[in-house]
Sequence to fold (327 residues):
Amino acid sequence: MTTVALLANLTTSEHRGRWELMQQLAPEGIETRLVNPTLSRGELIEALQGVDAVIPWLARVPVDLAQECKDLKLVQLLTAGFDVVDVPGLAEIGIKVANNGGSNAISVSEHTMSLMLSVYRRLMDSWVNTREGNWREGIDQLPFRSEINGKTVGIVGFGNIGRQVARRLQGWDVELLYHDVVELMPGRDAELGAVATPLDELLQRSDIVTAHVPLNSSTRGMFGEREFGLMKQTAVFINTCRGPVHNEAALIQALESGEIAGAGLDVLEEEPTHPDNPLLHMDNIVVTPHWAGGTSEGNERALRFAMSNFARLAEGRKLLSVVEPEE
Fold:
């Protein structure tokens, strides 16, 4: 019997539904356990004894805690990002970390499209204006209302999510560029209608730049003063991966000075952000609260993937989507 624990505090109906679904999806030979991360350290250690794998949901598994869990072999994430986990530290004590294998890629790519449209068509401005009873009074004068058709979209990071964004953009009559540090298999870019492009060239040519990279030492602050300076003054920046991938001060400066035209963000450097953050008060930006991947379909795919990895763990087979420590 392999025991897996959901490390979560079930404070909402969504959280409770996730636990119920996890129990339903557990294959034969997999025992599920619910552990509240707000327990004291001693209580947590006791509750995690005999656990082979853990899913931390809005919780953390620090190395010093994991060391006390003698049976723990796998930390399975339900997200694509893994920056909240000490991957090298866990690797040193023989514990693997796996992310969600792209199960939220469709959800995040659809949200990316929503942000593109919301910024380009001023959807939030028009909705607020209409809700307040003003109809079109005041919004016809708003600048920057445009079509995506005919534009160039640059996708930075062409993994599971970046490729799904490319798929979502099929039929929109856009030119697709992509940049990734990992070379795709031959012909893959042509298959998706996207052309591999050096990053600086992508920034200079794109009308929309959308980021889909993991947060690590090489991507932290990847979009800063220099990068925004390379972009067109009419360009829009979209970020649905991790907030620290962009330098927030540089982004604010670029937006305030007109160096770029707008932004759509699901992530910020500090979350939740302070209510005085200038990004929340600009009329050329849309911000959502880091929930691009939180759809019911995406949640189910993530749990199904987790269960398949737990079955592999139980059978001694190779695990999927294991995150390798940075060299």
